[in-house]
Design brief:
The complex is a heterodimer of chains A (441) and B (253). Chain A is an alpha/beta fold and 441 residues long. Chain A is built from ten helices and 19 strands. The longest helix of chain B is centred in the middle third of the chain and has 15 residues. Classes of the chains: A alpha/beta (441), B alpha/beta (253). Bound molecules: adenosine-5'-diphosphate and magnesium ion.
């Protein structure tokens, strides 16, 4: 055995949470076993720290001082707050599903007139029923050895299950709104599953928000299982409160000749870790993965992507941009793996950071791991400040410096927003961007 | 006659670097077009930047007034709102900012700074389209990111479009003819000539006399080694075409 490392207060707290909750966490025998195994995996390694390669820039062991108590089920007051909460996608006509303080709330959700082929269920119900789909999925569709994800598997109490039957083209996007209402800091573990059958298509929007000033802790995971020739557009917006810890994991397994468009947008939170594990399992799949982070104050946002081209003829584009002000820090780690036999893979990854102050920081670590010989892969990284020449050009036309900078920031992050195929999504993201710019002034 | 622009004893250098403008005096009255001609490296672009308020230059002596107001005390955006317009020798490309978005931002920012009402988008678009037509600018181009992938001629026409939209009181045109073929030159010159008015002054900076066949100046200055070394009428430009700048460079040295 190695040297016993003293457990931190947060690690002890997490163990308490699990011990206290495991008896009533939803799940039959199988799920309970999956949870226990996951918690053991977590206990073995503890909270990730900077000597854990995948977490080298985000030392959760140091930064997470304690584990907040688990959120209780939302009462009427919480539901009322959730109903009042600002909705970036209001008016877009999306089907809205609302998760309040980690619990799926049917009465706040639009479950009327579900399209043929669409099934929506609270994750808690699905877990309680010990559905084989879940016990298989909860374990692994992608490597499950990440400690934050293991914690999620152990403790996830609720979330949403969305099943889209093969061949179903959902024209109405689904918006899953995660709303934290409680000012007293709590922790919430949510797990969701989206299953898109072969030849089906859907747009799923995920938003996260909560009150400023509350040190609440979110650990949320979304699994996407996408069939052959299917199409999924997945958009995730983090606009959590300015003291919140947000750990998000996306686990995606994409079939053959499918289309996978993923866009992550960070415009809130204090410490944010978004990790994406993507497996292009079938041949000929096209993936477009984008991320935009707008950071200020002392924010720290880490986006870590691991994408595997497991089959031939796949194409992927990864584009990540961060605007970093004040003493904030943006981290991008991107790893593209091309499996043996995944010939003709075409993958290009780019990360760019725009630093708005001398103390702002951006770290980027791109990696390629290629086991096939006939592939086209590349990556690039840039970090820079606002271009003085461009700023002068705008000012010489009468645009005041703050507005000129805002215009250049918009232009920079615009490439990410334009990645959303849905116009209402682009408008909402632009709204989030303008809100962020407004708060900076 | 009211002096639109008064430059008195101006000395300017690149911050921490060379002295470029060395004792410049120039008065531009309303309604006048002044041509400034000079060899490459004389400091013509530097002068245009100093007038427009580009950071990075140190004014070591002298004064500049626009309609009696101290121009050097203003930031670039304030100068623009007061009516200074610089048509850049090399217009910049701004990916991600649609030309129309940029025009709207500039137009309304200037109006706001002057305490005037902003123009509604449809009205502004209409106005831009009308001007664009006179400059042979395709309305598709207005949707494209500013100057990105534009040809040299398109960029210069776009500068002229901005000038016509913003209706400045002082236009400074820096080598507007560079990179233009004769047809494009005529289009741009027509655009500039349409802006000639009794209320407006212009400084047309050029290395060659060619542009001045189309934009005929009232006064021509020879600019060498950071100051004006000779002043004459429109025929001075033709004389320079024949003699070149060699004599002025040695005089100035
Ligand atoms: N940013 C700069 N840094 C250093 N030297 C410069 C810079 N800009 C211009 N210069 C120099 O200053 C002189 C004047 O340049 P410029 O004003 O561009 O001349 P012109 O427009 O008349 O050709 C030239 O010698 C040029 O090389
Ligand atoms: Mg020049």
């Amino acid at each position: 055995m190695g040297v016993a490392i003293r457990k931190t207060k947060a690690e002890l707290g997490l163990a308490d949470l699990y011990q206290g909750a495991r008896r009533y966490l939803p799940g039959g025998e199988e799920i309970t076993a999956v949870r226990a195994a996951a918690f053991d995996r977590f206990t073995a390694v503890g909270l990730p720290h900077r000597r854990v390669e995948a977490w080298r820039y985000t030392d959760l062991r140091t930064q997470m001082k304690e584990a907040k108590r688990l959120a209780s089920l939302p009462d009427d007051a919480a539901k009322a707050k959730a109903r009042e909460a600002k909705d970036l996608f209001a008016g877009a006509g999306f089907r809205k599903l609302v998760i309040v303080d980690g619990a799926f709330v049917p009465e706040l959700s639009d479950l009327a007139e579900l399209e043929t082929g669409l099934t929506i269920q609270p994750m808690a119900d699905a877990l309680a029923a010990d559905k084989p789909l879940l016990s298989q999925r909860l374990g692994a569709i992608v490597p499950d050895d990440d400690p934050a994800l293991a914690l999620n598997t152990a403790l996830a109490a609720n979330g949403v299950v969305i099943l889209v039957a093969p061949g179903t083209a959902l024209s109405r996007p689904i918006h899953v709104a995660f709303v934290t209402t409680n000012w007293v800091a709590t922790s919430m573990f949510t797990r969701s599953l989206v299953n898109i059958g072969a030849g089906a298509s859907a747009t799923i929007v995920e938003s996260h928000q909560g009150p400023d000033g509350s040190e609440y802790q979110v650990n949320t995971a979304m699994q996407l299982v996408v069939g052959d020739e299917a199409r999924i557009d997945h958009i995730k917006v983090v606009s959590d409160g300015n003291s919140a810890l947000h750990i998000g994991s996306l686990l995606a397994n994409i079939g053959a000749r499918a289309t996978f468009n993923q866009l992550g947008f960070v415009a809130g939170g204090s410490l944010i870790r978004n990790q994406l594990f993507v497996r292009l399992a079938g041949e000929g799949t096209v993936a477009d993965i984008r991320g935009g982070s707008l950071l200020s104050g002392t924010q720290h946002a880490d986006t870590t992507l691991a994408i595997e081209h497991a089959a031939e003829n796949g194409q992927s584009r990864e584009t990540f941009k961060a605007v970093v002000g004040d003493t904030a820090r943006a981290v991008f780690q991107g790893k593209i793996t091309v499996a043996p036999g995944a010939q003709k893979t075409d993958a290009k990854m780019m990360s760019r950071a725009l630093l708005l102050s001398d103390e702002a920081e951006a770290d980027s670590k791109p990696e390629l791991e290629i086991f096939a010989d006939d592939v086209q892969c590349g990556h690039g990284t840039t970090t820079g400040a606002i271009d003085d020449e461009l700023l002068f050009y705008l000012m010489a036309r009468g645009i005041p410096p703050d507005e000129a900078k805002a215009l250049l920031i918009q232009a920079f992050i615009g490439e990410i927003i334009e990645g959303a195929a849905n116009e209402a999504v682009r408008d909402a993201l632009t709204g989030a961007l303008l809100g962020w710019l407004g708060r900076r002034e | 006659m009211t002096a639109l622009l008064e430059i008195k004893g101006l000395h300017a250098e690149i911050s921490g670097g060379r002295k470029i403008i060395q004792g410049l005096d120039l008065t531009v009255n309303k309604g006048e077009i002044h041509a400034i001609m000079g060899p490459n490296g004389a400091g013509k672009s530097t002068l245009s930047y100093v007038l427009a308020g580009k950071p990075g230059y140190e004014i070591t002596a002298g004064e500049v007034y626009l309609n009696g107001e101290d121009l050097l005390a203003m930031e670039a955006d304030e100068r623009a709102a007061k009516g200074v317009f610089l048509a850049f020798q090399y217009p910049l490309e701004i990916p991600g900012v649609a030309t129309l978005t940029f025009l709207r931002a500039a137009f309304n920012a200037q109006r706001k700074a002057r305490g005037e009402e902003e123009l509604s988008s449809p009205d502004l678009i209409k106005r831009v389209r009308e001007i664009a037509k006179t400059l042979n600018i395709d309305s598709e181009m207005l949707k494209r990111p500013l100057n990105v992938g534009f040809s040299g001629g398109e960029k210069k026409r776009n500068e002229t479009l901005q000038m016509a939209l913003l209706q400045p009181s002082l236009c400074v045109l820096d080598e507007t003819d560079s990179g233009l073929d004769i047809d494009a030159l005529k289009v741009v010159a027509n655009g500039v000539n349409a802006l000639r008015s009794a209320e407006r002054g212009m400084i047309v900076i050029t290395h060659y006399q060619r542009l001045l066949d189309y934009i005929v100046p009232d006064i021509v200055h020879v600019f060498a080694a950071g100051r004006i070394v000779r002043t004459g009428g429109a025929d001075l430009a033709r004389e320079l075409e024949a003699t070149g700048y060699a004599q002025y460079q040695s005089e100035a040295a």
